[in-house]
Amino acid sequence: MDKKELEKKVDEILERGADEIIGKENLRKKLLSGEKLRIKFGIDPTSSNLHLGRAVPLLKLLDFQKLGHQIVLLVGNATGVIGDTSDKDSERPMLTHEMVEENMKSYKEQAAKILDIKKVEVVYNADWLDKLSYKEIGEHADCFSVHEFISRDNIKKRLDAGKRVSLREVLYPLMQGYDSVAVRADVELGGTDQRFNLLAGRTLQGKFDQEPQDIIMTNIISGMDGRKMSSSWGNTINLTDPAREMGEKIMNMPDDVIEDYFVHCTRIDLGEVAEILKIEDKRKQKIKLAQAIISIYYDEKIAGGETEFLRKKFIEKNVVDDVEKFKVKNGESILDFLVNSGGANSKGDARRKIEQGGVSIDGEKVSDVKYIISENDNEKVLKVGKKFFRKIIIS
Does residue 173 contact residue 197 with C-beta atoms inside 8 Å? Predict the structure, then answer.
């Protein structure tokens, strides 16, 4: 790789999806020098699935890996028990070792969907954190003040609201910080909500006469409900989701997050992304996004097939043959059909959906609440809103 190409790749690593970098010039100099760095990223096994929010730093790790750096994937089987509340407005429940062990069973396999896992150094922080004595923990804690901890935005808000903040929570930054000492990290990745914990690593490395790690803080992406994507809230697109489910979640996401997902969850060139975003039809933008994301976790053939499915379902309005069939008698009212098939909760609800333009048959809106199902509708697909489909079968 020539110097110009290296500079381009390094600059993209330092800019794409990076909200803040601590030690940016130092890091850029090292990356351009060809020095092999140890790049650390930690994941706590608080649930059994990794999601696209976790994929943001994993893709950044892949960028580093392609430049020949050593990736250190740290599974927090000790920190996961304690629980990090950096992104929470209340105290995390303390997990058992058994729960953590169960959650992390397939983490390595899931991370391998993105990284060349054979070249990744996978470590577990219980291997060193569980061996620390009170004396050692006390020495680590002496590097920080209580004021520093309670000044964090989310902790301050909880205290101001009279909510409980446990002493257990104070331990978490010490643990994450010592992880960087244990693995001798040159660089650590984390979300913007992890700032205090990431800086703790620099502080403790200084205590142990290590060069403080540089830090890359990646942006937080929204989940399906507009909040931060989090397993705790169930608003995730998981790396283990079937390709079709993944695609349909993308098609149903809010329009205003499309650009964020292109930047953070794909590696499509940003110039090409800019051209895609000029397309007026947001559904067409989403189909290109879905194909780009699905192709990371599944092969190109599957990604292509699912893209075609999405195009037919959301663009052409022609739903494929696996839509659930529903038998109806010739002459049944549209209101009865909607209620009986599950498309509406009541006739009043069915009437509202029709009047609001949310009901169609084979892509043509049904505007008459007195519409009668007839032989002409046999084998056609009724659609309610964005997600409800039934194939009409005249019995």
Answer: yes
Structure tokens at 9: 């790749």
Residue 145 structural domain:
3-218
**Is residue 157 located within the same domain as residue 181?**
yes
Q: Is the pLDDT of residue 153 over 60?
A: yes
Q: Is the pLDDT of residue 190 over 80?
A: yes
CA distance 295 to 173: 36
How far CA 188 is from CA of 18, 245, 301, in Å, comes to: 12, 32, 35
* Residue 88: predicted pLDDT: 64
List Cβ neighbours of 326 (8 Å cut-off, separation of 6 or more): 337, 340, 341, 390, 391, 392, 393
Q: Are residues 83 and 200 in the same domain?
A: yes
Written as six digits, the tokens of 63 are 């960028």
375, two tokens: 């032989």
Residues 65 and 137 in one domain: yes
The model's pTM is: 0.77
Q: How many residues does the chain have?
A: 395
